[in-house]
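Need a sequence for this fold. Nothing fancy.
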């Protein structure tokens, strides 16, 4: 069964509460088409800027942890306001995990492109245990966790491909 997508809220919704601005990816989640992909693209485009601000891997990892915790709360508040726990306009759950993927992705645009497609694939199919968090944990933690698990699958897939490529070259 395909569930109907709830329409994106108006732009003014973002300004009603700081959590809405964060959870909706600073507006990237308001895309009428493929909002999760728009959020992931937002993450990809902002990653170089963030790395410039936080070039140290440890500092960036701490930032990611704080962004994840902030996301749990922001997604909870925004989902409640929209009446849907994991509303399509909520994309912070794509943004933070994809930043983590990019941190662990081998150097090169082709690896980042592969990471983008693998992340979107795993986010859409929701392999175990992501499906558990998506279906059973109806709060901000569940919203963030299923994408964090998609990120872990993505990093694992990239590591396997990197190993294969390195052995072939």
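Here you go.
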């Amino acid at each position: 069964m395909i569930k109907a997508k709830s329409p994106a809220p108006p732009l003014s919704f973002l300004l009603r509460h700081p959590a809405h601005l964060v959870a909706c990816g600073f507006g990237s989640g308001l895309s009428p088409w493929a909002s999760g992909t728009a959020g992931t693209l937002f993450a990809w485009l902002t990653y170089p800027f963030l790395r410039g601000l936080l070039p140290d891997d440890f500092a960036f990892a701490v930032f990611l942890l704080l962004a994840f915790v902030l996301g749990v709360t922001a997604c909870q508040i925004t989902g409640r306001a929209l009446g849907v726990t994991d509303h399509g306009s909520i994309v912070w759950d794509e943004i933070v995990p994809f930043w983590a993927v990019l941190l662990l992705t081998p150097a090169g645009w082709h690896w980042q492109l592969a990471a983008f497609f693998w992340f979107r694939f795993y986010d859409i199919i929701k392999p175990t245990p992501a499906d558990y968090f998506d279906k059973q944990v109806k709060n901000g933690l569940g919203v963030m966790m299923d994408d964090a698990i998609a990120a872990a699958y993505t990093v694992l897939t990239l590591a396997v491909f990197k190993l294969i490529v390195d052995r072939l070259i």
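For context: DSSP finds seven helices and no strands in the chain.
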